[in-house]
Amino acid sequence: MKPLPKVLFINHSVRDGGPGKSLFYLLKYLDRETLDPYVMVPKDDVFSERLKSEGIYENIIIDKRFPENLKKPRIFSPTDNGGSNSGQGITAVFMKFISILLNILDLTSLVLTSPYSMRKYGIDLIYCNGTQAKIAGALMGLVSGRPVIWHVRNIQQTKVLGSIIYTLAKLPQVKKIICVSGPTADQFPSAREKLVVIHNGIDEKEYDPSSTVGDLRSEYGIAARTIVVGSTGRIVPRKGYPLFVEAAHSYLEKAPDKNKNIKFVIVGDTPYFFQGNHLAYIKELVRKYGLEDYFIFTGYRPDVKTSLKDFDIFVIPSNYPDPFPRSVIEAMSFALPVIGFKAGGIVESVDDGVTGILNDSGDTEGMGDAILKLASDKRLLRKMGKAGRDRVKANFTAEHIAREIQDKILEVLDS
Fold first, then answer.
1. What is the 3-state secondary structure (H, E, C) of 153-169?
2. Structural domains of the chain ordered from first start
3. Whole-model pTM?
4. What is the mean pLDDT of each run of 10 residues along the chain (415 residues)?
């Protein structure tokens, strides 16, 4: 019997963010009578624990040379313990430089030894999930002679990194570039023959409001009649959380007293590798507007489902071309109407006026008006929410998406 093709899935994200969730679902629904999956991660963490919970923690390769982020600290400076003088500031910058250099050297070692690794495990194809994975995987394919597939889930915001990605995309080893949305694909004008758009998918049986018990209202003492307007995700500048605060302020200035029984909830934190604590900035902005009584910050939660269960309305405040935010289809699967801006892949997930309300980019007054419209009309709120869950079941199921991706993998292997 002919052995199954072996595919190495490389994933630098060990937390349960969008890329990790997407890869988890792909591995969960992959036909193991067709492909034999191997997975490379930097360490055991939330992502690998999910694989264990599903009984698919198989052929896992833990390689510490594959850093979660090139900025990951390797050594610590005096400022990490509260130092603040200029000498310590210079030391901190130097230590960050050294950490980045060590991470790059590790990544280089990983690439250069990849021919040995590919032979050892019998890998036939490299599948890259995430930005660092794209870079590492393309170079591994180049030196080991293996075909490579990229799964592109973001739109590069920095010129240097963007230039590297676009150059590597032209390599003949990169056979296929799967993009999560049209705007994501538009960043590869010179590689159009390699492009295919496949949206993110979600397991609607897992994200099912009828089988989930909420914990947000009980934990924070939120009354049943209080409208909860929530958002989930990384608290970083590009995600637009200041606009969410401004929209809440606009709402409260216009809403009659009967509609001020409302809470705005932000679930998430600022990852360690981002410069500055953006979450602290958002909290300060809430204090500036005098909205402390209306906002709740839960911090990072590995499982957002119990929070989504207690939301009434979901807000995605991204004002940049967000590729195809998974948080949106998670919310829609929970029968939540979605309010956001007309930016990036959001317009491909939300059916404006049917499953939610989209405003022009940066229009916080319009976003506030949209919240008021849904908070004032429970019938419309429920109607849009139901339409959202129906849309997820029809277009964005993880099982269907996994089979589409599997077909593309087989196409490359057969070519």
1. CCCCCCHHHHHHHHHHH
2. 6-201+397-414 (3.40.50.2000), 209-395 (3.40.50.2000)
3. 0.85
4. 91 72 92 95 85 90 81 58 51 78 89 96 95 92 97 85 90 96 91 95 93 97 97 93 98 95 96 81 97 97 94 95 92 98 94 98 97 97 98 96 97 95
